[in-house]
Amino acid sequence: MQVVLLCGGMGTRLREETEFRPKPMVAIGHRPILWHIMKSYSHFGYKDFVLCLGYKGEVIKEYFYHYQLFNHNVTLTLGREHHIELHPGAEPDGEDWKITLVDTGATALKGCRIKRIEPFITGSSFLLTYGDGVANVDIGALLAFHRRHRKMATITGVHPRSAFGELFTTEGRVTSFIEKPQIAQGVVNGGFFVFEREVFDRLTLDEHCDLESGLLEDLAREGELMMYLHDGAWACMDTYRDVEYLNQLWNAGQAFWKLWR
């Protein structure tokens, strides 16, 4: 089954980084968040990726075209027959991914981007997520849930982090404080979708065709959208503070999405 990644947005709320690169290429540690997302799917055996490119998509193309060069130590022999010898890098790198990079337009909305990669989808269903969110979602369990209900689409519901610290008090005395905890009750769209191929019939090549304010609303109204509840951790890279938070987790060895070894 193929994994579609939405990588084309402009990331305007993260302008400190996205002025120079598309948001999926903003780094956690020394790798782009896009790599972390792909690594998560790969952990569950899904290694055939279709990337919907848009804003500064050439940066993503260049990264994967030169992937071996970027992730290995090298010896260069210059001259008429240019030769590059790869040596192991700081980390073992054994990715056997297939990556299809598709230019889906600089300003197209997500529904249009998905429609434009239709010719590259070979199966009867496919996985899809955003290029800026990480989680410890069990992709196998998500897919099993989707197959059981036999509807057209599955969305993963997640508990977001609060924007504020949470206080626990007794008669005005603070008994504990948790900085920006995960909200226990509220559920939001965390991405990590499964779609049947029939959804392509609901989308158009019009640049204003959207995913959330369009396809998902229609499927929900028709009873064709089911939610897989993920009680684990989830975070998105929406602002520079999010970049700092995710990097703090990674550097401290607390990256909840790092399921691989």
List keywords for this structure.
261 residues, alpha/beta, Spore Coat Polysaccharide Biosynthesis Protein SpsA, Chain A, 8-stranded mixed β-sheet, two-stranded antiparallel ribbon, 16 strands
CATH homologous superfamily identity: Spore Coat Polysaccharide Biosynthesis Protein SpsA, Chain A
What is the average of the pLDDT values? Answer: 91
Helix-strand pattern: EHEEHEHHEEEHEEHEEEEEHEEH
Structural class: alpha/beta
Question: Your description of this structure?
Answer:
This protein has a single domain, classed as Alpha-Beta Complex (Spore Coat Polysaccharide Biosynthesis Protein SpsA, Chain A). By secondary structure, it is α/β, with parallel strands linked by helices. The radius of gyration is 20 Å and the shape is globular. The longest helix has 12 residues. Helix content is about 25%, strand content about 30%. β5 and β6 form a beta hairpin. It is built from eight helices and 16 strands. The strands form five sheets. Strands 1, 4, 7, 8, 10, 13, 14 and 15 form an eight-stranded mixed beta sheet that branches.
